Amino acid sequence: MTSLEFTDQVQKISYSLKPVAMNLTRDADDAKDLVQETLLKAMLNKDKFKTGTNLKAWLYTIMRNTFINNYNKITKRNSNIDSTEYFQYFNTDENYITHNGASSDFVVTDINAAIAGLPADYRTPFMMYYIGYKYLEIAEKLQIPIGTVKNRIHIARKELKQALKTYAPGV
């Protein structure tokens, strides 16, 4: 595929990226930025695209990964990490302080209890992932295979979802 053909196909597909970006960011300006960054990365890495594969899926993957990376950067930048046994997460940004102490105390207490109720093998990788570590970093730090890390985080999420189902929307 020539550069001109690649550019033409990317341009045609680019219109379908905006609704997906809007769904991810929930903000029109951020969605435009995300689409623009996605298209820039696609153009810079067009040599990595394999002809005959799904270009639209490739672009969606770039967009999703870009969004996740940006989100993780923002989350890491705005958080302080206390490396106690449970890797408690504290955020000192005034925008995140809740003013309804009664109901939020119950929720936080229930969440902390649910996390504390997880077996240590699941709790540790889950909390590391929650505070911003990547799968590979967790695997290296805990000296376990990356597949095991992913599996333990998945199981921890499932158990937390079950333990906190009373807070699910519509319940």
TrEMBL record:
<dbReference type="InterPro" id="IPR013324">
    <property type="entry name" value="RNA_pol_sigma_r3/r4-like"/>
</dbReference>
<dbReference type="InterPro" id="IPR013325">
    <property type="entry name" value="RNA_pol_sigma_r2"/>
</dbReference>
<dbReference type="GO" id="GO:0006352">
    <property type="term" value="P:DNA-templated transcription initiation"/>
</dbReference>
<feature type="domain" description="RNA polymerase sigma-70 region 2">
    <location>
        <begin position="18"/>
        <end position="73"/>
    </location>
</feature>
<dbReference type="GO" id="GO:0016987">
    <property type="term" value="F:sigma factor activity"/>
</dbReference>
<dbReference type="InterPro" id="IPR014284">
    <property type="entry name" value="RNA_pol_sigma-70_dom"/>
</dbReference>
<keyword id="KW-0731">Sigma factor</keyword>
<dbReference type="GO" id="GO:0003677">
    <property type="term" value="F:DNA binding"/>
</dbReference>
<dbReference type="Pfam" id="PF04542">
    <property type="entry name" value="Sigma70_r2"/>
</dbReference>
<dbReference type="InterPro" id="IPR013249">
    <property type="entry name" value="RNA_pol_sigma70_r4_t2"/>
</dbReference>
<feature type="domain" description="RNA polymerase sigma factor 70 region 4 type 2">
    <location>
        <begin position="111"/>
        <end position="160"/>
    </location>
</feature>
<dbReference type="InterPro" id="IPR036388">
    <property type="entry name" value="WH-like_DNA-bd_sf"/>
</dbReference>
<dbReference type="InterPro" id="IPR039425">
    <property type="entry name" value="RNA_pol_sigma-70-like"/>
</dbReference>
<dbReference type="InterPro" id="IPR007627">
    <property type="entry name" value="RNA_pol_sigma70_r2"/>
</dbReference>
<keyword id="KW-0804">Transcription</keyword>
<protein>
    <submittedName>
        <fullName>RNA polymerase sigma-70 factor, ECF subfamily</fullName>
    </submittedName>
</protein>
<dbReference type="Pfam" id="PF08281">
    <property type="entry name" value="Sigma70_r4_2"/>
</dbReference>
<comment type="similarity">
    <text>Belongs to the sigma-70 factor family. ECF subfamily.</text>
</comment>
<keyword id="KW-0805">Transcription regulation</keyword>
